Amino acid sequence: MRIAIPLFDRFTALDAVGPYEVLKFLPDAEIVFVAEQAGPVRDVPKWLALTADAAFDDIDACDVLLVPGGPGARALLDDRPLLDWIRRMHETSAWTTSVCTGSLLLGAAGLLKGLSATTHWGAVDVLESFGATYTPERVVFQSEVVTAAGVSSGIDMALALVARLKDRTTAEAIQLAIEYDPQPPFDAGSPAKAPQAAKDLLKRKFP
Fold it and tell me: Cis bond leading into 45, ω under 30°?
């Protein structure tokens, strides 16, 4: 089972690495990181690099497509090579998935029209401009298309996907293996719950 994860300049590392840490436990999984060219690709803010094993032209099919997001995603909404590759992978994949603003790339590729989908809360307007209906759930399944909300929700999505690829017990065993038992120290993980001071600081630091 080939799982393809595209990388691009200024992607968010956890969008890709979180699901990878879950999916790598599948015994029949072949996970390949792909980019326009093989080699290192920098995240945001360019301190961490992941290595793309292959170029887009080298991968002509996959069973699972997992598109991460990040600030760099918005700059690629009219990038024909990437969007064409996403469309080709969608034609062969059993599951087409995204994390965070990776859903914007699915939308730009025309894969979310008429579907319910989720994304990072700061990108709702862009998501809906592609004909999707935003829902604030952490993970949204629409037939073979799966979207996850911001960053950390990629782990939730990958576990839910494992339950469908294999079974619930396998997903629970992987959850136990990575000791994914969220108990955040603060209840500020969504706009509905975060205090105004946190929202104001976020706007100043990351406008």
Answer: yes
pLDDT tops 70 at residue 207: no
Total-model pTM: 0.96
Number of domains, the chain: 1
Residues spanned by the domain of 188: 2-205
Tokens (6 digits) for 135: 């829902």
- Longest CA–CA separation in the chain, Å: 47
Q: How many CB atoms lie within 10 A of CB 188?
A: 14
Whichever domain contains 77, its CATH number is: 3.40.50.880
Residues in contact with 50: Cβ distance below 8 Å, sequence separation at least 6, in sequence order? 7, 13, 16, 17, 33, 40, 41, 43
Q: Are strands 54-55 and 30-35 parallel, antiparallel or unpaired?
A: parallel
Mean pLDDT of the chain: 96
pLDDT tens-place string over residues 53-109: 999 999 999 999 999 999 999 999 999 999 999 999 999 999 999 999 999 999 999
CA distance 167 to 84: 32
100 is catalytic: yes
SS3 state at 44: coil
Q: How far apart are CA 174 and CA 31, in angstroms?
A: 16
Catalytic residue among 59, 65, 100, 146, which?
100
How high is the pLDDT of residue 44? 85
